[in-house]
Each structure stands twice: as C-alpha cells, then as structure tokens.
Amino acid sequence: MKMKKCLAAALAAFALCSAAQAERTPLCIGEALRITLENNAELKSLRQELAKADAFKIKADGTLLPSLSFSAAADAQREPQTADGSERSSGRSAAVSLEQEIYSGGKNSAMRAQAPQLKTIAEMAIADAENGAAGELYARFYNVSLKKKQIEAEEAAVATSELHLKQVKKMAELGLANKLEVMRAGQQLAENSADLATARGLYENALISLMNYMGIEPREAREVSGDLYEPAVSGDKAVSLLLAQRFRADRKRLEGQIRYQENQIKIERSAMLPKVTAGLSSGWSNPYRQRDESGDTWRAQISLAVPIFDRNAARSAVISAKAVQEQNRIALEQKELDIKSEVESAWSDITTSRKSMRAQEKALELAKETLRLAEVGYREGVTPQLDLLDAQSGLTLAQLEYNRALYNCLIASVALKVTEGTISEWNGESD
Asked: Global pTM?
C-alpha cells in the first residue's frame, strides 16, 4: 500500500513537471504577440477606458428617463394644550415625486450623441497602443535573437582560439613557435572568453526585458524560438501612405475627438438656453393635528427656467470648448504631416538597412576567406601570427556586424508596418 502511494506521488510529480515543461516551450513571435496584447499592463489599464465609455452611455441614456424619488418623515413634539383641550404631539408624512426634463437646451441630446463617439475614441486609443506595443514586442523579441547570435559568434571565436592555442603549443614543443606566440594565443583566448561571458549576460538581460514587457514573471521566463531573417516587403510609399490613412488608429482618434468636441460645445451652450421640466408628486401627511385630519395630497406642475445672467460662466465654457476643438483640428493636421514623414523615413530606412546588410554580408564572406588564407599561411610559415589573430578577430567582428545589420533590416520592416498601422496583422514574411 505504501509502495502504491509512493508510486502515485511520483507519477503526479512527473505529470506536474511535464505540464510545467510543456508550458515553458520556446515562444514563437505569434504567441509572444498574443500574450503581450493580453498581459501588458499599459494595455490592460487602457482597456478600462471602455468601461468608462459604457458608464457614460448609461448616464446619457438616462436623460430619456424620468427621475423618481421617495421621501418619508416622522417626528414627535409635545406642546401645551390648546383652548379646546387638544394637543399636537406627532407628525408623519410620505411622498413620491416624478420629474421629467422635457427640454434641456440641447444638452441631453448632445450627451447621447457623445456616448458612441466616446467609445470610438477609447477603441482607437487601445488600437493605437496595441499597434505600438506590437512594434515594441518585435524589437525586444528579435533583440533576444540578436543576442543569441552574438553568443554563437563569441562561442565560435572561443573555439577557434582554443584550437589555435593547442596548435601553437604543439608547434612550440617542436621548436616551430616561441613562447611569445603561445602567450599571444592565450591572451586571445582570454579576451574571447570575456566577450562570451559579456554576450551571455546581455542575452539574459534582453530575455528578462522581453518577459517583463510581456507581463511574465522572471521565474516563469521562456526561451524564444525565432531567427533573424530578411523579411519580404512589397508595395511602395504611396501604398503605405494609403494604408496609414486607413488603419492608423491615432489619426482616427483625433477625428473622433473633433466630433466629440462639437457636441461638447452644444452642451456648454445649453446653459444659455431655457429649460422645461414636468413634475408630478403625491403624498400622505399627518401633521401636528388630530388624526382624523390626515389625508393624501398630490401636485402636478410644468416649470420653465430661463437663464438671464450667469456672470458669463456659460459663455466662458463655450469659448474654452471651441478652443479645445481647434486644438484637436491642429493636432489632426500635424498628425497627417507626421504620417507622411514617417512613411518617407520608414522606406528610407528599409533601403538603407538592406544596402548595409548586403555590404556586411560581403564583408563577412571576405573575413572568412581572409582567415582561411591566414591559417594556411601561418601553417606554412609565411604569415605572421599577429595577422592570423587579426583575421580571427576580424571574422568575429564581421559576424557580429552582419547579425546587427540583419536585425536592423528586420526592424526597419517592423517600423514600416507600425507606421502603416498594420503590424498586428503582419505575418512577418510578406504583405
């Protein structure tokens, strides 16, 4: 029995470990994007604006409904007897009131028009934040891949240095190399080992930064699966500009704010206009008199309130609301200009990054060939060791520069998609 319990506990522990391992499988960019859009603290906070918009709609729709209130009171009081011998010692009352605003000067209708506009503004703010968050995620995600590539380059450098040190030691034993050459080889290995340690530290920091941005705790950190690559890019500046005008949520948000402010001006102006209210109340009272004198009461009324002079408070509010609307129009004009400039810059960066990547690719090929020739020449005794060490360092540097150029090329494409407002739907390969 005890054996069965131990076996069951071991199986349960194995199942938990397997589940944890399955949950920590390497992240692909698609899953990372989904997790970020769900967990990012800034996005989660911004989505509460939708709740605020729904609350405003409830308030605006309530203007169509009457207000209903109930009141009741009871008190006791003792007074000297009156001439007829009676005394008033208690009073009770209850009332129900119904009130409906018939005309509010346009305020209520303007509020009801603002409700869907406010929700649209909140949705566009969220969409804009998601577009920016997706672009930031791509940069952080592939920065981890870049740091992983840096580790691979430094590991290759360490392996090459170790091999060279072994070769020099053997040559020294045969009298083909001197002690200085052995020391140089050892120094190269030490420097490469230090660079490898630095690269591993940078990788850990990049991974922690990515997990933090995704809302994942450090103890639940996961590796990433994604290599640097050159994404296919189609279209041109004109196509990108059309896409940006169609999909950029920050632009749509400004348009929504202009429409919202038009109704806000109506709301502020309504303080200058008359208001009509209808009311109906019914109640029961038993005042300070004999019980048989208690009874029911009711009242119906229509009231008209006409503002005459409010010390320019309404006029000031209207002027301020118009100023805000003009600021929104100016911001929209500037946003249109910003989008055009961003599209131009994005395409310029793509062109520049691709040219740089091609140049670094060629430099990497030359560095590999240079090292091959230096190794052959050193073995044959025609190439100095310093040239060989320089060739080894040159290859490592060329590999790092090529990786950086490839990363810049990828991020330039990401920046273009962010500028177009289509990054969340981008598959990472082609349009």
From this structure: 0.84
